Amino acid sequence: MIFVPGYVISTDDLPIPIYEGSKTVVYRGIREEDKQPVIVLENSG
């Protein structure tokens, strides 16, 4: 599970990537402060 303080990155408590590459996973999320949509990148390399 992805956890980033101040952001919600989940759909029904299950983060669903919008892109999965060999070293990068991309998620949609919401910034809690102002409820704006964000993109979160997770690098594994």
Can you summarize the main beta sheet? 4 strands, antiparallel
Q: What are the low-pLDDT stretches, counting only 5+ consecutive residues below 50?
A: none
Distance between the termini: 18 Å
* Rg measurement, Å: 10 Å
Q: Name the overall outline.
A: globular
Query: Averaged pLDDT, please?
Result: 88
Number of strands: 4
The number of helical segments is 0
- Structural class category: mainly beta
Percent in strands: over 45%
| Number of structural units classed as domains | 1
Considering DSSP H and I runs of 4 or more, what fraction of the residues is helical?
under 10%
Order of helices and strands: EEEE
Task: Tell me about this structure.
It is a single chain. The protein is an all-beta fold and 45 residues long. It has one domain (7-43). Helices cover 0% and strands 49% of the residues. The protein contains no helices and four strands. Strands 1, 2, 3 and 4 form a four-stranded antiparallel sheet that branches. A hairpin with a 3-residue loop joins strand 2 (17-20) and strand 3.
